Amino acid sequence: NCLIELHDFSSFKLNYYDKDLVNGISPYEKMKWNLNYCKNYVETFSSKSPSMFFLGRTGLGKTFLSSCIAKALLEKGIKVVFGSIIEFLRKIEDEHFGRADGNTLDTLISAELLILDDLGSEFQTSFTETALYDIINSRINLLKPTIISTNLSQSEISQKYNERIVSRITGCFTPMYFLGKDIRHQKLIEK
Q1: Which is it for the CA torsion 41, 151, 119, 175, positive or negative?
Q2: Is-contact 178 61, C-beta < 8 A?
Q3: Residue 173: burial class (beta carbons within 10 Å; 0-12, 13-18, 19+)
Q4: Helix, coil or strand: residue 17
Q5: Read out DSSP for 93-150?
Q6: 95-124 residue pLDDT tens
Q7: Distance between CA 111 and CA 139 in Å, rounded?
Q8: How many CA atoms are closer than 13 Å to the CA of 150, on its beta-carbon side?
Q9: Fewest CB atoms within 10 A around its CB: which of 8, 35, 110, 161?
Q10: N- to C-terminal Cα distance for the chain?
């Protein structure tokens, strides 16, 4: 149930991250730590694994690292659902209003691991906000791990989402900060 291309951890290239210090930390060392944390997350994955919140500007490897986690866990036989938050919310809305068949909401809530990519890119309505809250809150109550990625800053998240959503994400998810320069841009220059 993955709607995004999957990758191996061995394909995650740390050489795209600068070793120079930025605010006292090198993007290379931070991303090396994130990579090792995510590999360990897969090795020790269980229903008690923590939920994670991947934060950082666009092109820093959040979706790529999420795809590595998804692929490794799927290979272990774990039920992972991974996709763009826009796509999931669109499906839920279409099913709710009878424009499509299925039960995407139940699929998202019941997965052993849910990975929601690109929080903040979705068009916000009271329906999508309620659906997002339902997904996050239900998974927290069922003690099911979730990974959410976003290009938004903490303050942008607080401005964009209601207090109930923000409280659950900031209070129940381990933040993982992604640092560096846009890798897609670097790859373009290399060509």
Answers
A1: positive
A2: yes
A3: buried
A4: coil
A5: HHHHTTSS-S-HHHHHHH-SEEEEEEET-SPP-HHHHHHHHHHHHHHHHTT--EEEEE
A6: 999 899 999 999 999 999 999 999 999 888
A7: 9
A8: 23
A9: 8
A10: 33
Task: Report if pTM > 0.85.
Answer: yes
Give the other-Cβ count within 10 Å of 140's Cβ.
17
Please tell me the distance from the alpha carbon of residue 53 to that of residue 33, in angstroms, as a whole number.
Answer: 15
Q: How many residues comprise the chain?
A: 191
Quote the mean pLDDT of the chain.
Answer: 93
**Which of 9, 59, 63, 60 lies closest to 31 in space, CA to CA?**
60
Helix, strand, coil fractions of the chain, as percent rounded to 5: 50, 15, 35
